[in-house]
Amino acid sequence: MAIITNSCFTEEMSNRVHAKHPHASLTDARLQTRASSLLVTHVNKVELDDDLVSIHQYVLTDLAHAVMLTRTGIFDAHHGQKMVKTLLSLRAGDTASMLASKPEVGTLGLQIENYLERELGPRGRDIQRARSRIDQKATNWRLINRASLTEVIQGLVALGSQILETAEHYAGALMPGYTHLQHSQPTTIDHYLNAHYWAVSRNLSRLFEAYDRLNLSPLGGAAYSGTSWPIDRTATAHYLGFDRPVYNARDAGFAALDMGAELAGVLAATLSGISRLASDVNYWSSSEVGLVRIHSSLCGTSSMMPQKRNPMVLERIRGLAGSAVGWSASQLGVIHTATSTDVDQSYIHNLLPSQCFETAGAISLLREVIATVEFDLSAMQKSSGQHWSTASAVADPLVASHGMIFRHAHESVAHLVASHERAGVCSSDLRADLITDPALKEYSHSQIQEILDPKSFVASRISSGGTSIEARDQLATIAKTDLLAMKNRLQHRLNNVERGLKQLLKMHT
């Protein structure tokens, strides 16, 4: 039977009850003793320090809850308005200082409850009506990680935009392509960077999908089975910018902990993606290769070797990508047991905001590298045709004009390359006496040289996604359209959060 709500529980009655039972620690009534100093130091204080990262989310959650309780009549209007006004003042002020948190009181939710009692008397503790710390903490966890994840998404959108901008600036500039750190086939800077844009795009899609699964409201799920109070979970979800409430009351709490592991995994995948680009640029910037130069503001030097110019930011990105591999493993290691509780999970829940911060930082560093990197266009063009990188282009005419099986044509060109290497001759010094294949002899020296020219090679890759100018123009157009869609997806989510918050604050300001 639903609880009948009215204002019969007056402030006077509350004060009478409080006179008999003055404020004490949450544990006093049940455990009949104060918490051990060891528990306070090694559990309460640790959890409280972790909670303080999301202090503004905690206050916002309490505000949304208080507004909902007032609008549904669960709180009488007078009591509800006082509660809301006090929470608004707490939000607008120096929240941490105003709370004056004490570890012996407990977690941050209890600190706010304690503050409300100081400001409003015993009825300040009524903020916990129709909810549990389980759904309260789960809501705040989602809010702080939504904000943190948003920063990662914003950074990745900016990186994608910078990649395409740099690609457009260097459109058509030849560069060597590598596989196994060996010359493979020539490409262009814009074609190369366009490929990395699509890795960014895939990770953006993963982040948006994770965001949407994260952006559901646990508030009102209570401890496990819901509540008998006629709450409006849809309203609080809207106020806090969530898409909807989590459907199941048990799942609303910390039963749906796979979200943490998913977020950590997506962050690791994102870092892995940008690390591949960072690794390439790092290799190209080495003294031996010398194809690019990293801006001085993004480099470090040596305390002993004065000539050193170290691309530290790229090494930072690569190192973080390696470290991130263990992030989801830590999450899964804690949550995999059926008996896992919110105390167990406190060891991992505080990790994601800092991991998002580090990921967003790495993304910003790479964006700055791509925005300021100096390409040695002359060196890149020269390198693009070296080491027989265009040899595969010679095999195609043999198949097209002579009806050769491709594998036989491939072997003929392989013999051509091997004979020149044995003679110590590079592809730019093609020798007629080393062309022994009958089919190849039908081509003049100049014809083969033209086929081997990297500009001709790049222009001849006419298939969709290739390096010809038409194919590259098409790739650039598709990528720009995709980036615009990503920006719109981001803005839609930002607007949704802002709209809910505005409505929440508009009611009582």
TrEMBL record:
GO biological process: L-arginine biosynthetic process via ornithine
Family matches, as CDD domains: Argininosuccinate_lyase
Pfam families the record matches: ASL_C2, Lyase_1
Claim: Magnesium is one of the keywords in the record: no
Cellular compartments per GO CC: cytosol
Record keywords, A-Z: Lyase
Gene3D superfamilies xref list: Fumarase/aspartase (C-terminal domain), Fumarase/aspartase (Central domain), Fumarase/aspartase (N-terminal domain)
Family under the similarity heading: Belongs to the lyase 1 family. Argininosuccinate lyase subfamily.
Protein name: Arginosuccinase
Source species: Fusarium oxysporum f. sp. lycopersici (strain 4287 / CBS 123668 / FGSC 9935 / NRRL 34936) (Fusarium vascular wilt of tomato)
Source organism phylogeny: Eukaryota, Fungi, Dikarya, Ascomycota, Pezizomycotina
